[in-house]
Task: structure prediction
Amino acid sequence: MATFKFIIFLLLQLLLQFHPGKSDLQLNYYSESCPRAEAIIKEQVTKLYQKHGNTAVSWIRNLFHDCIVKSCDASLLLETVNGVESEKTSSRSFGMRNFKYINTIKDALEKECPMTVSCADIVSLSARDGAVLLGGPYIEMKTGRRDSKESHAALVDSSIPNHNDTISSVLSTFQSIGIDTEGTVALLGAHSVGRVHCINIVHRLYPTVDPTLDPDYAGYLKGRCPSPYPDPNAVEYARNDRETPMVLDNMYYKNILSHKGLLLVDQQLVSDPSTYPFVEKMAADNGYFHDHFSRALLTLSENNPLTGDEGEIRKDCRYVNAN
Ligand code: HEM
Ligand SMILES: *[C@@H]1O[C@H](CO)[C@@H](O)[C@H](O)[C@H]1NC(C)=O
Result:
């Protein structure tokens, strides 16, 4: 029996050794195949930021929405075709923007190295470079992710937390991909930039104001969102952080401590005893926030990637390659 087990063990080792598919992400994966890949992405992200500052904000949200749904595989970017629904059509993706500029980045890469750099790596590296432009930390990221051949639209609602989910369910979602409580609190600091549409706010304003919301701030938000039933097509929104809306800083934590959180989930970080201590520490120390944000974003960016001969390198990030 023992010998039999040993033989099985040896066979497994052999299989693992010669299995050609699975390999890991690595630093500078494109150093031989497309040496300027990371420089090109950075150039494009910078140019886009100079024209439309909020593109940098979008790249950070993209990483979250792509990676938390099964894998960092650019499935998020696929359009609805042949009856296969795009992940972007889910209500969880409400308000996502600037997707057309992903094509700008991809086109620049295709010009230099056709069919070489994955859309999944563009999602990660654009978020990395966007964070720096917004005054956030620089995060060293590995590359070598490959693109999925399918959309995971059916998994979106169960994978991406909703604006009014409980903290315990949010924590367990992030826990399941290896991000601890402190890391989750830090990631939500991404809500230090960008905007929230009224549709995600009005339930805290009407018919009565949520008591965890500062009354003066509620008054301001009612001005931004005058109707309890906002038209989902109207561009009615409030900025996440009135103080420093385009800076990835710890103002978010100061805001929620003074009851100026926009989403219910933001505000609950303060009322939940498991997250409150981290909120306090992050509000007090921007460097500490940045350290934990970096660590958690890195983990998020390495969630279950396709590598080796899995998936493909898409030519156009919106569509699976034809063949
Ligand atoms: C519990 C987890 C989270 C929930 C429920 C959540 C929910 C939301 C909602 C409802 C919006 C506003 C959408 C709109 O009305 O336009 C939003 C915006 C945003 N979220 Fe999150 N989010 C979460 C975590 C994250 C994480 C982990 C990141 C990135 C690390 C992130 C990045 C962003 C960014 C950058 C925006 C602003 C987008 C823009 O202005 O275009 N979020 N989020
Ligand atoms: C959360 O908000 C959604 C709308 O986005 C709503 O349908 C749902 O009933 C809310 N859930 C809770 C628990 O309030």
The radius of gyration is 21 Å. The pocket of 2-acetamido-2-deoxy-beta-D-glucopyranose (ligand 2) is lined by residues 162, 164 (CB under 6 Å).
